[in-house]
C-alpha cells in the first residue's frame, strides 16, 4: 500500500475516530478507549448491545468507479439500517478496508470516502472506534460492523401477529430502477431510458445515499411495534422473511406500494416494472414493520414528527396449511402469480 498502513490508520483516526469520551466523526459517547490500541474499550451503560455487520466488494456490491464519498456514506448506511430495523440507537462502528496494492495511492480517495462517511456518522451520532486495513491483490473490499444499544428490547422479524397491518416507510423501487439505468448506461451508451435526466438523478441519489430510518425505528419500538426488518433485498423477499419467521401468511396490494414521483413517472402503470422495481427490487433500506391497527394513530403521529411518509400496504393473516404461497399479491383485487422472490442479487 503506497501511502502506508499506519498513515492510513492515522488519517482515519484523526478524521473519524471516537475515543476517550470524545472524538470526531459523530460522537464518542461511551468510548473509554478508541482507535490506537489493540481493541476498543466501550461502556454501554447497562443497556442491551445490538450489533450487525456487512461487507461490500467492488464489482459485486458497487461499481468500481463509484464516487468514494458516496461509498463512504452507503457503507455506513446499510449497516445503520439494520439497527433502525431493531429500534436500536447506534453508538459505535468498526471499519475494515482491503485496498488493492496496484493502486497509486489512496490519499485523495480516502479524503472523499471520509467526507461521505462523516456526513452520515455525525447525523447518526456514531463513532468509529477501530477496525483493520490490509493491502490485497483482489478488489476493494469494505467490512463495517455497527454496535448500538437498546433499553426496552428490540423489534424482531418473528413477532408479527394475524391482523397486523403491513407498513413501509418512505418509498420503494428507486434504487432498483437506478441500478437498471446504470447498467444500461454502461452497456448501451445512448440508451433512452423512460425518464428525464432530473428524474434519473433523483433515483441515483436514492441508490447511492440511502437514509437509514433510525429515528422512526426507535420511536416505533417505543410506541409498541414489535416486528420490523429493513428492506434491503426487495420488499417481497424481505416480507417473506417476516412471514416465515412469524409462521403466518400475508396479503399485499401492489397498487398500494409507495412510489416516489420520479419512479411513478417512469413506471406509468407498467405492471412488469411495478413487480421488478418496488416489489422485488432491492437497496431501498426502508423499514417494513407490522403493527396492530390500534397503533395506527400513534404511527401516523410518529411519521409526521419524523417528516417521513409511511404506507399500509397489506395485512398479516393466519397460517393456512393448504395455501401454496405464503404471500398473496393482489393488483386491483386480482390475485397475481407470485414473481421471483430470490431478492436483490448483488452481482455486477
UniProtKB/TrEMBL annotation:
Residues 36-150 form the PurM-like N-terminal domain. HAMAP family: TMP_kinase (MF_02128). Keywords: ATP-binding, Kinase, Magnesium, Metal-binding, Nucleotide-binding, Thiamine biosynthesis, Transferase. Its EC number is 2.7.4.16. PANTHER family: THIAMINE-MONOPHOSPHATE KINASE (PTHR30270:SF0). Belongs to the thiamine-monophosphate kinase family. InterPro entries: PurM-like_C_dom, PurM-like_C_sf, PurM-like_N, PurM-like_N_sf, ThiL-like. Substrate binds at residues 61, 283. Mg(2+) 4 binds at residues 38, 52, 82. It catalyses: thiamine phosphate + ATP = thiamine diphosphate + ADP. GO terms for molecular function: thiamine-phosphate kinase activity. It comes from Acidithiobacillus concretivorus. This is Thiamine-monophosphate kinase. Mg(2+) 5 binds at residue 233. Reaction mechanism of ThiL seems to utilize a direct, inline transfer of the gamma-phosphate of ATP to TMP rather than a phosphorylated enzyme intermediate. Residues 162-317 form the PurM-like C-terminal domain. Transmembrane segments: none annotated. Mg(2+) 1 binds at residues 54, 132. NCBIfam families: thiL. Catalyzes the ATP-dependent phosphorylation of thiamine-monophosphate (TMP) to form thiamine-pyrophosphate (TPP), the active form of vitamin B1.
